[in-house]
């Protein structure tokens, strides 16, 4: 499973942007996400990948690559 592709698709749909605008190095700042927007996106990813992201972890998740790496580490491919 390509977690980055999946994260890109979810972010693109959620924000209404083209996937071609998103890559592994795209940051929250690039997407103009404030902290509340980012929490909403994190909740969406938690639901989609059946994981939990601790509030303390949110600050360290800067790029889409960071998000995809966390999804890959925590999710069970059989459940998604």
Please, could you describe this protein's structure?
The protein is mainly alpha-helical and 80 residues long. The chain has one domain (3-74): Orthogonal Bundle (Non-ribosomal Peptide Synthetase Peptidyl Carrier Protein, Chain A), CATH 1.10.1200. It contains 3 helices and no strands. The chain has helices at 3-15, 35-49, 64-74. Helix 1 crosses helix 3. The termini are close together. 15% of the residues are buried.
Poorly predicted residue ranges: none
> What CATH first level would be assigned?
Mainly Alpha
Percentage of residues assigned to helices: 40-55%
Number of strands: 0
Backbone shape: globular
**Kindly state the mean pLDDT as a whole number?**
92
CATH topology: Non-ribosomal Peptide Synthetase Peptidyl Carrier Protein, Chain A
Give the amount of beta strand, in percent. under 5%
Measured between the Cα atoms of the first and last residue, the distance is 10 Å
Oligomer kind: single chain
**Total number of domains:** 1
Give the H and E element order. HHH
* Main pleated-sheet profile: none
The value of Rg in angstroms is 11 Å
How does CATH name the architecture?
Orthogonal Bundle
Key descriptive features of the protein:
80 residues, mainly alpha, Non-ribosomal Peptide Synthetase Peptidyl Carrier Protein, Chain A, 49% helix, globular
């Amino acid at each position: 499973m390509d977690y980055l592709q999946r994260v890109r698709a979810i972010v693109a749909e959620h924000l209404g942007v083209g996937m071609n605008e998103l890559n592994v190095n795209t940051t929250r700042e690039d997407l103009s996400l404030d902290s509340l927007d980012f929490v909403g996106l994190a909740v969406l990813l938690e639901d989609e990948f059946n994981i939990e992201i601790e509030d303390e972890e949110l600050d360290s998740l800067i790029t889409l690559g960071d998000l995809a790496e966390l999804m890959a580490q925590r999710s069970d491919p059989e459940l998604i």
